[in-house]
Design goal:
The structure holds 2 protein chains of 2 kinds.
Chain A: H1 4-7, H2 15-25, H3 33-43, H4 45-64, H5 120-156, H6 158-173, H7 176-190, H8 194-204, H9 207-220, H10 224-231, H11 236-244, H12 249-273, H13 284-291, H14 300-327
Chain B: H1 2-28, H2 35-38, H3 45-55, H4 62-74, H5 92-127, H6 132-145, H7 149-169, H8 175-193, H9 197-221, H10 230-249, H11 255-274, H12 284-306, H13 310-343, H14 362-400, H15 403-410, H16 415-453, H17 458-467, H18 471-499
Classes of the chains: A mainly alpha, B mainly alpha.
Chain lengths: 351, 505
Amino acid sequence: MSNTNDKMPGNLTSIAEVEDAKLAVSTETSKSQSRIVLERFLRHKPAMISAIVLVLITLLAFTSIGYGPIPGWWKQSYLDAGAVVNGGKPTLSLLPTWLGGSGIQIGEHPFGQDSIGKDYFALVMNGTQKSIIIGVVVGLVATAIGAVVGALAGYFRGWIDEALMRITDLFIVIPLLVLAAVLGQIAGRGSSSIILLALMLGLVSWTGMARLVRGDILSLREREFVSAAQAMGSKTSRVIFKHLLPNTIGVIVVNSTFLIAGAILLESSLSFLGFGVQPPESSLGLLISQYQNAFTTRPWLFWWPGMTIVAIALSVNFLGDGLRDAFDPRHSGKRRRRAGLFAMPTRKEKP
Amino acid sequence: MLKFILKRLGSAAGVLLAASLLLYILVINSGDPLGDLRESNAENREYLMQQRTEYMNLEQPWYLRYLTWLTGVSKCFVGACDLGRNINGIEVTDLLANAASSTLRLVLLATVIAAILGIAIGVLTAVRQYSGLDYLVTFLTFLFFSLPVFWAAVLLKEYMAIGYNNWLENPQISLGTSILIGVVAGLVLQMLLAGSLKRRGITFLATAIFVPLLLQYSVWLNFYRFPQMGPAVIIVLTVLLALSATAMSVGLKEKRVLYPALITAVLVLGMYYATFWLLAEPNGWLLLGGAILAVVIPGLIGKLMGGRLSKAAMGVSVTVGLVGAGLTVLDHIFRAWPGFLDLKGRPIATIGSSTANLEGGFWDHFLDNATQLLLPTIVLAIISLASYSRYTRSSMLEVQQQDYIRTARSKGLSERTVIFRHAFRNALIPIATIAAFDFAGLIGGAVVTETVFGWKGMGDLFNTGLHAVDPAPVMAFFLVTGTAAVLFNLLADIVYAILDPRIRV
């Protein structure tokens, strides 16, 4: 922009003409809002690394042991017991021989075997699938309910708002873990379907989303574009779903990622307590619960599922952080450094 | 204000009632309470089933059972609670009294620790936004957010409890280890204190040399089995605190603040000798009385000597007095430690909330409770620490962008005054709401922690109750957590309205 003055024609008379000329010469292309957000997100390094990690974990979990009727490339099954080889020690080795390790190899049972000889890699992958499915389903269900409830309450206000917010309070008063445990027990009684459990969890974890969306809608509905839409005779549903909700997309997207991370941790806690996924199916929380006492003798039974949960939850959380920075420019950018809090009282600076 | 409180209380009671009905229906439909007996081969099966049916009023329809429970709860208002009987016919009211006290102790302590540490870390990272420290803390908070509670708890059990107990058998720190600890401590400290490159270097070097020497000296003293402090250390620490607290609040030049603080420090030493024999075998009331005195007397000194700075003087003196009293108590705890180790060879336990049949005096029981509390408190605190520091950080950053902060800076106030007097106080307002939510949430989170650490608290009550499809204990758990949630929310709203004059009720 610094050299635009040189290129401008010299015979301009009004400020408007000058501005127009500047725009005409300027090489910067204008970008749409979504484009700016996307670019900011792509520049966020932790979020990008997390996205790659998450995609890799998902691909590994679903292709290795297959899903449902589709077979995977991993030969062992998580349901078959077998002979315990070498105390069930993991055969995965990443240390080359010239560093004193046993060479880079994957081996028969990279994550080891459990007490009855089941392949632990297959078990952990099965649990990872469960966690990812639960995260996605809970995220979708809770986001949908929360966004609609929040939008209705915020748009209509009055008694609808009052009623919907009291229902939200109802769900907030009962601790989430308690409600989820009771529903998990109900879901686990009839079938061992993971989707049912995920739906139940989604039905109870929408409250935070509803409150946030309501707050946003309450301020948005006073803006001119809403009045304009109403004046042009838009239906109420059109105003809410075409004009208001798209404007809260930042809040919704960011919080649904945190919801997903929360749901994955909630499921693992429930399974740990025995209210979530029931055996013979396995989940990461259930694996930790089964082998927490084997820590001293066979620590890998404890480490693998735990590390997997942490890796998934951490990636999703960082992804959410990246999205928040991308949607809210106030959160990014460098700031001028100031003198520290505990800095010594500075003497007069030398000129 | 009163109208607002009453209105909120009314709607809260309604929500609580509806929630209890919802939860009751869900719990009794979550399974078959007679399931285990139906499959049992016991000879007196019929009798056992009949007995359980009677305990749980199973012959009545569900709404009558709910009404019975509700009537029992409403008797709480006249001081005669009746929360029904559990699946084995034991009165839940008695069970709850024990369970609630151990859980509340755990949750309260964890909340206080998490709030204090979290707010301090949040302020520090906000002041040093985009520094190495900020990135490190941000990463750690995300890690803590993503940790499954039970997994972290098992890790702590393994490395903190069992590892520490093994190490304590013969406490040795090798030279290499102590140098490593010194280097890490130096790196952390230079990050915290920051400043110019030269200052960072000096901080790092001083710490990296001093810490290994200190560690070796403590090993030579056998400090970890026979810790000792003595009056000399206490007076040095309290005087140092008096100086630094004065420097932090108004600066060392203000004698009206400095003198009361120093007088308090001297008083602490006097009280140390005066109460020496009294504190050798104290009781809870004595300690509470001492704590009150440690607030009142320095407060009076500060008020009388402070003049126009009496508020700051009172604050500094009370801090010095409280910390000095704490150090005095710590000295007695140190004295009791070797005797305690004789009674309980492996101090940090992984199971239970207290050791059964422990002999010894007040300090031994105190230390026993403390060592049993340690691990669950750390687990609970770590997780809410993350959210406190995160919220404080964003709240501070928000406040720092306001115009009045720029005004304060431009009129030449020191950075310390700007941060602590102008920014920090206003940043604390939204934290009040978080604290209320967090406390209620932690009671729920205690379910998992108590299961891992084998505490017989409310979480255990809920857990076993729900597994047995037994509504009475589950509802008792809900009654406490739900009431706490409602009350703390109300409290947060009131505090918010008092602290922030922009909010009208």
